[in-house]
Write the structure tokens for this entry.
Amino acid sequence: MNKEEYFIKQFSNNKIIGDDGAFIDGFVYSMDAFFENVHFKKEWMSLKQIAYKSMIVNISDAIVMNAIPLYALLSVAIPKSYSNADLKELAKGFKKAAKKFGIQIIGGDTISNEKLDISITIISKTSNPILRSGVKKNDLLCYTGILGSCKKDLETLFENKPISKKSKFIKPKLKPYFFYEIAPFITASMDISDGLFFELEKLSKASKIGFEFFNEIDESIGSSGEEYEILFSFDEINLDKIKRIAKKHKVELNIFAKAIKGKYRTACKNHHF
Amino acid sequence: MNKEEYFIKQFSNNKIIGDDGAFIDGFVYSMDAFFENVHFKKEWMSLKQIAYKSMIVNISDAIVMNAIPLYALLSVAIPKSYSNADLKELAKGFKKAAKKFGIQIIGGDTISNEKLDISITIISKTSNPILRSGVKKNDLLCYTGILGSCKKDLETLFENKPISKKSKFIKPKLKPYFFYEIAPFITASMDISDGLFFELEKLSKASKIGFEFFNEIDESIGSSGEEYEILFSFDEINLDKIKRIAKKHKVELNIFAKAIKGKYRTACKNHHF
């Protein structure tokens, strides 16, 4: 158990780890930190890109619970060295993401700090939340898109080499319209932020279930974090419907495992540096 | 205009600075940062006290808007050096405050960081929010309790000398029962976190009004931050009711000014280090 898990374990209700967000009375409340030297280095991205990504990774949590994000609160710790032009860029990134997803930035806190540390709370609405605990025996497991590029890009960044501006690592591509349409036909979902293997471990714990892989998944794919692709499960009976919706939205599906009795644990280490 | 104000100005709706929290459809959403070396130094307080205070300063925002805090989300960046015993202490502080105010900790995020940086979101409920914009001409201005001790205690801490464990700087004393009872009879309110003079400037901006002081207020009182006393305004017609409620709850009232046409600006500097 790492430090974060030990800390979370102190909260007996354990709601703190349950899902990407907490579902209460039709609302989903989610909060994620996006800290300099933890989630990004300032050399890697522009301030606008950093602010944009910090919003997107939070909005992702709402979407994969089948919730419509409504409001955002921002806690932004800003280095003393930042110029007004820097602050303007930072604000632009937050506003761009908010506008794209129809979110109102309603409040928060700004303080002066040594590094740029952002925490965001998103308040969303849903009448049918999709949780991590819903995987049933014999369900099919699927992830969207292509995994692996974010791990490669992260390695490239660590070598002080540039990556494409179009990299998912810089600008994650969420799939809200696809997801809201498949939502009635799936049993569980979450986003892939820590890597597929890690998410599967969380899914296994939440649903008390194991997975039988159809083919071995390479570590370069399974341990690639920051992908913000969607991992979900569904009854085979809905396979055609889901395939049709995926085709309509041009989303690639990777059906890679079946839920079986048991539990799944990964031996991979967390990707955060 | 300082950096924080410039950043906030980028958000055109300006809701981000409006009140201690944002009021929407019966809910109040508030979020405050509580960062090491910005709001506290680790030598000053135990981890339990730090966590407790980080919750209390957030709960204070809800109370002064006449809202009942229901849920909390915690973003906690934890130094790698912390032992499991440290984490347990930290969790104890959060849980103590949550229990005291009947709040459920429903989620958040924990990450590994260089220093202890906490951001908290509180979700509260109210049918009658009290805002900063409600001060009317001729209203009386009042603050609760005794101001000044937190500034003194902060100075003592900076001299590396100890302060009393009972100091309001370590353990702010909120007055929810008093406040909820006076709420129907007041026109505006906020808590005193940055110091009375600063809060008056915010109140003046939000209500587009000035203040006529009955007596000069010393800087040792007016610029003492972290007090978490309550600043509020009311029509003189309600003076006796408010006095009676204050007596019942043993709360000291300081009626110090009258609202007049004009605006109020302070020359004092912010207390944050």
Chain B touches chain A through 56 residues (CB under 8 Å). The mean pLDDT of chain B is 92. The beta strands of chain B are 22-24, 27-35, 68-79, 104-113, 117-125, 140-144, 188-191, 210-213, 230-234, 253-260.
